[in-house]
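The following record pairs a protein chain with its ligand, 3-methyl-2-oxobutanoic acid.
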Amino acid sequence: MAQEHVQIFDTTLRDGEQVPGCKLDTKSKLTIAERLDVLGVDIIEAGFPVSSPGDFNSVVEISKIVKNATVCGLTRAVKNDIKVAADALKHAKRPRIHTGIGTSESHIKYKFNSNKDAIIERAIDAVSYAKSFVEDVEFYAEDAGRTDNEFLARVCEAVVKAGATVLNIPDTTGYCLPEEYGAKIKYLKKNVTGIDKVVLSCHCHNDLGLATANSIAGITNGARQIECTINGIGERAGNTSLEEVVMILRQHPYLKLDTKIDSKLLYSTSQMVSDLMGMIVQPNKAIVGTNAFAHSSGIHQDGVIKNRETYEIINPHDVGVTESAIILTARSGRAALAYRAKNIGYELEKLQLDKVYQEFLKLADTQKEITDKDIPTIIKASNIDLA
Ligand code: KIV
Ligand code: ZN
């Protein structure tokens, strides 16, 4: 089945790094950038060069080492930002400048004390100026999620005319519902002259836990780029999680949309970013959390031991996790106990298992989890004859 390509724009090193207390030094950023390139992301947003000399330097060094991906630098719609970004990107094989301005009523009034026409002028000027340095210019309409669609379409049309190659429609505050965000993308596809020459991009924040759902709604309505971070890290409640959107497309082939990501590297990449940022991955995080392939209730364990597919929609190997885990707790049943005992060399017959299980429950009620070390003790306490 022919799959259409959705581009993965990774912003772990820019929006992701805006997490309080998780600043990365240049060396760590280079390690992550190299891994993102091998992982197969299409675009690496390496930083916001004008923001600090350290960030400028990171973008320069990342531009030198990235082999395949486009390297992108963020700017405001400010001439000096754009010039500095162009400078930082000069070693990149495929440079992209990402420039933009707030377009919602609230941003126009409170951030810029301006009006709609003046905002459009600034957007056009920024894109035209960025085009004087690089061919690939992405424009973001900040707070597009809360911008009325008619004005958003006017802004988009103006910057497409000025030469933008990608239109980023950020739900900056994570406000939209999936239907609303999808309808916004559909509206732009229908009402912006020249839209077919450019790529529409989804950039969704997770304030209401909808970043992934909104990004998927965006691409099923015609967007072809998703901006995301490893582990979904980012400002406030974070950004769209890269591993989630990649696996959603892979597990739903009838959508006929796929990415170039080597999914077998997802788990190790998640661990690498977590270690370098000193930010733990919540255990129940989809795809890469430690519990994502762990089963602890008796009913589920019995099913998974008979056939993994009863309770797992993803093969853990596909995301680089070695195997599903059968966790022993007071909620576990005989099947799980027999399975774990067998793994460490105890084949229990039915009557033996009944006895061992009673001992198991006594201990399981007193501790959170039963480990491999506890199993021989439990077997001994149950006084069974082992051949
Ligand atoms: O969330 C946002 O609007 C952004 C832009 C700067 C692209 O991160
Ligand atoms: Zn953002």
